[in-house]
């Protein structure tokens, strides 16, 4: 098992370029199943979740080429299988988008329940409720979801989500794109990658409006044609490097970002004492002395993202005074990394949904384990900021979502390397 070795204590300085958004890529790639013809998808991050998805699609009969780095040419016209490889599906969370894509194209699917980061119980009842509202017959066993047409042909329907769910919003959008009639998703999630998926589908000929608001309307179209689309920059990768710059006392220009997507993260880092300057497609983040304590509560977009909870926690651990960090999306997420941070000297008390973090002068190197993707990213930041050497184990989680992490951080002056055990 590989691990990272980090010699901490060097402020990050320089320029870093953010990759394409993981959560958009893992939605757009399955959605190419709906397209009759080749799609050229640009700015695709080379991360393990994307590689797994491409292998699943290839095994189902998709023709996939990589004409250049971060560009995928994908033609799903030849796909006939409605049963993606179960072993691969279980390796990642977002494989659940194959359900919506297969339902939309073939009106049936036999898909294993997804795996991925298990930082909390992650039900998919809202996805299934959406499929049922489109007329699907939904059967769930311990290991599989089976979708088939119900008593009537599949068609557009109205779905009001009981919780704001990114996954359910995406899955229903994909499933409904080719169905006759109009689908309305109420209480929809508004994350940037939902807008990106809608833009991709509309570029290929879909008729989707309202993405980015809490009501998304999908008017079914007969077919989608091939085309070219570039994925948006990754909001969370950008936020992770911003937090790393601040935690190490550095000065970093983060390029290829959409500053508007970063607003909630930017304003918290500013509140904690960092200087943040927005440019058209870049953000400069500069530490200006000891960080100040803050109060953060995670929310669906445009609120502070739960996927940045662990990284901001490291900044809080190094700030003066006592910070409060409340999780309102995945309540058990603290357990993925707080005890690891404590072994590095952080002072964290968890009280239900809230972590009370008393800032400390220093973190110290230790051997720690990543328990999920963002927890792993936070441990890397902690290692970069800490005195001494940190080993981060279980890095396959981190590699799920961060492209060229070592190269990007090394270019900023970090002393980090990947060790193959
Ligand atoms: C997506 C992101 C993930 C992020 C999360 C929250 C992708 C591929 N992953 O995950 O990185 O952490 O959004 O921003 O985009 N829920 C239900 N029933 C459902 C679905 C969700 O109760 O059917 C609950 C969840 O338990 C959670 C909340 O709704 O409490 C939000 O989950 P959701 O937005 O669906 O997360 P994911 O799409 O899995």
Describe the structure.
It is a single chain. By secondary structure, the protein is α+β, with helices and mostly antiparallel strands. It folds into two domains: 2-18 and 233-420, Enolpyruvate transferase domain (UDP-n-acetylglucosamine1-carboxyvinyl-transferase, Chain); 22-230, Enolpyruvate transferase domain (UDP-n-acetylglucosamine1-carboxyvinyl-transferase, Chain), CATH 3.65.10. Helices cover 31% and strands 27% of the residues. The protein contains 14 helices and 23 strands. Strands 21-22-1-23 form a four-stranded mixed β-sheet. A four-stranded mixed β-sheet has the order 2-14-16-15. Strand 15 (275-278) and strand 16 (282-286) form a beta hairpin. The longest helix is centred in the middle third of the chain and has 13 residues, at 235-247. The radius of gyration is 21 Å and the shape is globular. The model has no long low-confidence stretch (mean pLDDT 96).
Which regions have little confidence, pLDDT < 50, spanning 5+ residues? none
Share of residues in strands = 25-35%
Shape: globular
Q: Biggest sheet, strands in spatial order? A: 21-22-1-23
This entry's quaternary arrangement is: single chain
* Overall residue-averaged pLDDT value: 96
Total separate domains: 2
CATH topology of the largest domain: UDP-n-acetylglucosamine1-carboxyvinyl-transferase, Chain
CATH superfamily name of the largest domain? Enolpyruvate transferase domain
Number of helices: 14
Largest sheet: 4 strands, mixed
Number of strands: 23
What is the name of the CATH architecture of the largest domain? Alpha-beta prism
Helical proportion, percent range? 25-40%
Enumerate the distinct ligands: uridine-diphosphate-N-acetylglucosamine
> For the record, what CATH class of the largest domain applies?
Alpha Beta
For the termini, the CA-CA separation is 6 Å
The helix/strand class is alpha+beta
Specify Rg, calculated over alpha carbons: 21 Å
């Amino acid at each position: 098992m590989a691990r990272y070795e980090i010699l901490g204590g060097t402020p990050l300085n320089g320029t870093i370029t953010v990759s394409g958004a993981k959560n958009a890529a893992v939605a757009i790639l399955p959605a190419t199943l709906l397209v009759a013809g080749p799609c050229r998808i640009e700015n695709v991050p080379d991360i393990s979740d994307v590689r797994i998805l491409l292998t699943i699609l290839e095994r189902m009969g998709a023709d996939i080429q990589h004409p250049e780095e971060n560009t995928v040419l994908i033609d799903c016209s030849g796909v006939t299988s409605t049963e993606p490889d179960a072993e691969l599906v279980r390796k990642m969370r977002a494989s659940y988008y194959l359900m919506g894509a297969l339902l939309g194209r073939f009106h049936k699917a036999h898909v294993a329940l997804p795996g991925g980061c298990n930082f909390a119980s992650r039900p998919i009842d809202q996805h299934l409720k959406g499929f049922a509202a489109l007329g699907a017959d939904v059967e769930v066993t311990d290991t599989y979801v089976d979708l088939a047409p119900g008593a009537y042909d599949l068609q557009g329907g109205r779905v009001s989500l009981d919780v704001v769910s990114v996954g359910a919003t995406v899955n229903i959008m994909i499933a409904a794109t080719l169905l006759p009639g109009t689908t309305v998703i109420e209480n929809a999630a508004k994350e940037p990658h939902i807008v990106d998926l809608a833009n991709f589908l509309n570029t290929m000929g879909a008729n989707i409006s309202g993405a980015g608001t809490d009501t998304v309307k999908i008017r079914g179209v007969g077919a989608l044609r091939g085309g070219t689309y570039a994925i948006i920059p990754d909001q969370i990768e950008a936020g992770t490097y911003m937090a790393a710059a601040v935690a190490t006392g550095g000065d970093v220009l983060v390029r290829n970002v959409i500053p508007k997507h970063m607003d909630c993260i930017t304003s918290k880092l500013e509140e904690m004492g960092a200087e943040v300057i927005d440019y058209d497609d870049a953000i400069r983040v500069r530490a200006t002395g000891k960080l100040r304590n803050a109060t953060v509560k995670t929310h669906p977009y445009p609120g502070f993202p739960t996927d940045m909870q662990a990284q901001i926690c490291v900044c809080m651990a190094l700030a003066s005074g006592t910070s409060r960090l409340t999780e309102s999306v995945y309540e058990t997420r603290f357990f993925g990394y707080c005890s690891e941070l404590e072994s590095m000297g952080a002072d964290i008390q968890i009280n239900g949904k809230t972590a009370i973090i008393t800032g400390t002068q220093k973190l110290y190197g230790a051997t720690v384990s990543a328990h999920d993707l963002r927890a792993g990213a936070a441990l890397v930041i902690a290692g970069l900021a800490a005195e001494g050497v940190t080993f981060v184990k279980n890095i396959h989680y981190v590699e799920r979502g961060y492209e060229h992490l070592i190269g990007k951080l090394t270019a900023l002056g970090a002393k980090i390397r990947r060790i193959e055990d």
